[in-house]
Design a protein that fits this description.
Blueprint (H helix, E strand, L loop, with lengths): L1 H31 L1 E9 L9 E6 L4 E6 L5 E7 L2 E8 L5 E9 L4 E3 L2 E3 L7 E5 L12 E5 L1 H6 L17 E3 L20 E3 L8 E4 L2 E2 L1 E2 L4 E2 L8 E9 L11 E6 L5
Parallel strand pairs: 1-7, 1-8, 6-9, 13-18
Antiparallel strand pairs: 1-4, 2-3, 2-5, 5-6, 10-17, 11-12, 13-14, 15-16, 17-18
């Protein structure tokens, strides 16, 4: 009887560990990737269910297929930041294609379709436009893209200086440990105030992994400018998946870089 109880407890422990690991990996993916979502309707406004949605990454030419639900909705999660083409096919309708859908880190890019009646061999093609208002999230922050990281002047090649481009971000206290001027902290400057909060309460992530050095709460690993794909600086109202921080900087590195 005792042996059976021990065996049962062991199995329960293993299952719990696996579940927590899966949840942690999912959370890490969410903060370093983006998603494309939308609704597929016909020209009368009725939902088109079971439509085939193909999401193709332009840079790698990799494609993944999804299917709309009974309400015509689809979601393509965990997409690496980049440019995508979204195509929709449904019997009795022209094929709908949206080019140049930009997905940024931790972004939900909405791409809706209104299919026209016709043959699948016919294509109704449009070019995606950048949404002026984010209706998918209430979080405050901004993505600093690769072009800014590569082309803007940086003192000491420290990408973290670009957080000051984000509205609501101000420099931290001069001469403190996080400023890079202290002999106690050999790392580069990483201090900023998000909406007036303390700099030593910020959170740093690199590819979804906690990158906080807990003595001064600065970065542990400072990726090179060449390895940074883009990063997002969040200043408020962000999801609990980030775990901590008055402000959060989530960095996405390029594939194959160190």
């Amino acid at each position: 009887m005792f042996t059976q109880d021990v065996s049962h407890c062991g199995k329960l422990f293993v299952r719990t560990v696996l579940l927590l690991t899966a949840l942690a990996l999912s959370a890490a993916a969410q903060v370093t990737t983006g998603s494309i979502l939308g609704t597929v309707k016909d020209n009368t406004g009725a939902a088109v269910k079971n439509a085939k949605v193909t999401v193709t990454e332009v840079g790698k030419s990799t494609a993944t297929n999804y299917t709309t639900d009974d309400e015509g909705n689809y979601t393509a999660p965990f997409l690496i930041p980049g440019t995508y083409v979204v195509a929709v096919e449904a019997q009795g309708f022209k094929k709908g294609v949206v080019n140049n859908v930009i997905v940024q880190i931790d972004q939900k890019a909405r791409t809706d379709f209104n299919l026209e009646i016709g043959q699948l061999t016919e294509i109704a093609e449009v070019t995606a436009s950048l949404a002026l208002v984010n209706t998918e999230s209430s979080e405050l922050g901004q993505v600093i893209e690769e072009r800014s990281v590569k082309e803007l002047p940086l003192n000491g090649r420290n990408f973290a200086q670009l957080v000051y481009l984000v509205p609501g971000v101000t420099p931290g206290q001069q001469g403190e440990n996080l400023s890079g001027a202290s002999t106690f902290n050999p790392r580069a400057s990483s201090n900023f105030n998000a909406l007036g909060h303390h700099a030593n309460s910020n959170g740093w992530l690199i590819d979804g992994i906690d990158n906080n050095e807990y003595t001064f709460n600065t970065v542990i690993v400072q990726p090179t400018v060449e390895s940074v794909r883009e990063f997002k600086a969040l200043t408020g109202k962000f999801s609990a998946e980030y775990g901590r921080g008055s402000g959060v900087v989530s960095v996405s590195t390029k594939s194959g870089s160190t």
